[in-house]
Design goal:
2 domains; seven-stranded mixed sheet; about 425 residues
């Protein structure tokens, strides 16, 4: 495929071309841009969106109260989307070419049944702009280190700006009200994170004397809670920044004798453990390595041991369709990743001698967790900038948090706690 010609964006003076080369440069693809605008008109009608041109004029008639996509630079938006689809859609937001007064409502409308957005007769055109993930972002031993470094080693101070005091970067479980809807407040987030951790530790039957392996340390809160129960924990991470802060927090809590935090790939783990726990780490493993991930867990479990995972999931067929597609999230947020389906988890685990014993989903709780993080992040713009992150990064993370929240609000994404045991295990 011939690559599109590029021209410098009008905002090049405010976008660092070395840090953001594909945001600083605007593709020049007039035919594809025209197709992109036609597709936008169709989507606006199909999903009841209000697409506003500069000055507030709607692109097509829209119902009152419709989610709003405000085009600040329609031509630039069209060229980016025409050149690279949803990657271009994200880069266009980073460049400030579109906005929305309620970006989550807009993205939630788009996230529902995304396969219906493009007419079936024209889906073959997808091959003109869909990219494959770069080979150097595969989660091999070396690739995984690079991928984790790009996200988790950004800055502990950055994550502390929007996470609560537990420094937990995964879905909480809130108390529920009418209709089992989560009751989420910033003040209640630490307790909700502990509720999630305790539920997972209960699933793995972690108690006094338990030998626990944690795959994916985060900033150490789960290891701390396990140590408080009297367990001995080995926790693995590939993030140097996380390791440093987790060790500091564990020592300050007085559990350095119970918890070891190691800079170690899960594939190199040794030992025998009564429980293996892992929170939202399988998404970083990559589909080609899922079998090895589960085989490693099976190898490390002592007889009668239990593995408890928390995993973001998506429907199986969309997972298969997107598993070799390079997305905006993979390019800018989580290189090398792949969200699994429950079916894929169960099927892959079975090949290694494990089986899914129980699972419980609570996607609406993740939507609320993300809302709290997003609101906190957007309120602290100046502090993000003071850490050396520019406005393109800030818009990128706003979109990432809103995009993720919309995925859970639409039901396209879910999150599950899953118990894995050996096939011959009896409860």
């Amino acid at each position: 495929m011939t690559l599109p010609a590029c021209r410098t964006t009008p905002a090049r003076a405010t976008i660092d071309p070395h840090r953001w080369p594909d945001v600083a440069q605007l593709p020049d693809v007039p035919l594809r841009a025209a197709v992109a605008m036609q597709l936008l008109r169709r989507i606006a009608r199909l999903r009841g969106l209000r697409v506003e041109l500069p000055g507030g004029r709607p692109l097509v008639p829209a119902p009152t109260g419709a989610p709003v996509l405000r085009l600040n630079r329609p031509a630039a938006f069209a060229h980016r989307v025409g050149a690279s689809g949803l990657i271009g859609f994200g880069e266009s937001y980073q460049a400030g070419e579109w906005d929305s007064p309620d970006i989550v409502a807009l993205l939630t409308a788009l996230a529902a049944a995304p396969q219906t957005l493009v007419p079936a007769a024209t889906r073959w055109l997808r091959r003109l702009y869909v990219q494959r993930p770069p080979k150097d972002e595969r989660s091999t031993v070396e690739g995984a280190r690079r991928n984790i470094h790009r996200h988790y080693d950004l800055s502990n101070d950055l994550f502390a700006l929007f996470l609560d005091a537990t420094m937990t970067y995964s879905s909480a479980i809130f108390p529920t009200g009418a209709g089992q809807q989560p009751i989420a407040t910033w003040g209640g987030l630490p307790e909700a994170q502990h509720r999630k951790i305790d539920q997972l530790l209960d699933l793995a039957q972690v108690g006094p004397g338990s030998r626990v392996l944690e795959i994916g340390t985060g900033w150490g809160e789960l290891a701390l809670r396990a140590a408080e129960r009297g367990a001995r924990v080995v926790s693995l991470t590939l993030s140097h920044e996380q390791m440093v802060l987790a060790r500091r927090r564990i020592a300050a809590a007085g559990y350095a004798d119970r918890v070891q935090v190691r800079l170690c790939d899960y594939r190199a783990a040794e030992g025998s453990y009564d429980a293996v726990v892992s929170v939202e780490m399988i998404e970083a493993v990559g589909r080609p390595f899922w079998a090895l991930y589960f085989a490693t867990i099976e190898r490390l479990l002592a007889p009668g041991g239990r593995a408890a995972l928390q995993a973001i999931t998506m429907p199986h067929e969309p997972m298969l369709a997107s598993s070799d597609t390079y997305t905006w999230i993979l390019k800018y947020i989580f290189p090398g990743g792949q969200i699994p389906s429950l079916k894929a988890i169960a099927k892959t685990a079975r090949t290694t001698g494990l089986h899914v014993d129980t699972h419980q989903g609570y996607g609406p709780h993740y939507a609320e967790t993300l809302r709290l993080w997003r609101e906190r992040f957007t309120q602290r713009t100046d502090e993000v900038a003071s850490l050396g992150f520019d406005h393109v990064f800030h818009r990128m993370w706003e979109l990432y948090l809103a995009y993720s929240e919309a995925g859970f609000r639409s039901g396209y994404l879910n999150v599950h706690q899953i118990l894995l045991t050996r096939k011959d295990h009896t409860r």
